[in-house]
Fold Enoyl reductase (ER) domain-containing protein.
Amino acid sequence: MEVKNKYIVIKHHFEDAPKEANFELKTGTIALSVAPGSDDIIVKNLYISIDPYQINRMKLSSSSQGTSSFAAPINPGEAIDGAVIGKVVASGNAKFQKDDLVLGVFTWAQYSLVKEGSILRKLESSEFPLSYYLGVLGFNGLSAYAGFFELCKPLKGEKVFVSAAGGAVGNLVGQYAKLLGCYVVGCAGTQKKVELLKKELGFDEAFNYKEEKDLNYALKRYFPDGIDVYFDNVGGETLEAAVANMRIFGRVAVCGVISEYNSAGRKASPNMLDIVYKRISIRGFLAADFLNVFEEFFSKTLDYLRTGELKTIEDISSGVESIPSAFVGLFKGDNIGKKVISLAED
Ligand SMILES: NC(=O)c1ccc[n+]([C@@H]2O[C@H](COP(=O)([O-])OP(=O)(O)OC[C@H]3O[C@@H](n4cnc5c(N)ncnc54)[C@H](OP(=O)(O)O)[C@@H]3O)[C@@H](O)[C@H]2O)c1
């Protein structure tokens, strides 16, 4: 049987902040069966992860594009790949059966054809919603956990600053830091997010960076004795201000630099003298570098979810049609927590 399959493409490469007009909804067809002898798998997609890094794949060229298979360029007119959870509808691969739940790199579509060699694993049904495997129990959680614990080597009582703290990675970093016993301050772009961080997620302080005239001064207010650990999600002037306020032997984990992802974003130019004399470590990372701690991250995070010590913040939209606005919204601060698209009840 063949069915219609809606999917999202970019119309053209772009360098500026993304707009819905950069995207197009297409409709193709897909067979819900596999030819005898083929090891293809057909997946009905249930949840699609919406992530800022995809913008760097949508540019004509970016220094990121050759660094990892996740960063490979996206061609206009072709289905966009990303992290997806789905259900197998047909399988020529003996390791996967019809109705298996799977997580992998599929397409921004209703259905995906998954070829041998694709990133794909079976998902045992869980006590938590499936969408958690794209966020708190997936690569966002691993980014927060590994970036914070493995790179920053935080100690109880240290002073931690997190940017984009109302987002998928940032809110988890702040919660892990509180669970360790750190003093934690987050910044975010709306008062609603600031209230969430302080009242529901246990941050000691939070502020709206859009209302601050001078970020350097704002950080002095919250960290009169300086910052030990800065978890950077945004780059730009926030990174500069954090470096200016770091203590001796401070550590900066650069998870992402979203304010620099489009051509208008100011590139960070931190004070190198501070970095030398305060012996500050600044290190970028990719979550995929830390698969060696995945099991540890996963079991600790499951425990925290079970006890309710870790809260999950998700922002879910419905339908393939909502993907462009969901993606564009990441760069306007529309999302609160992990942005996910829900496609089908299952
Ligand atoms: N290294 C890795 O393996 C890895 C893995 C996942 C994510 N990342 C990176 O981590 C960062 C956070 O990703 P996420 O998935 O958790 O996204 P997210 O924080 O859920 O969403 C993006 C948020 O960034 C903020 N933002 C957007 N434009 C901004 C700007 N110009 N200046 C300051 N803040 C801005 C917005 O919140 P406000 O309301 O606060 O502005 C927005 O909600 C991104 O840089 C992403 O690329 C890296």
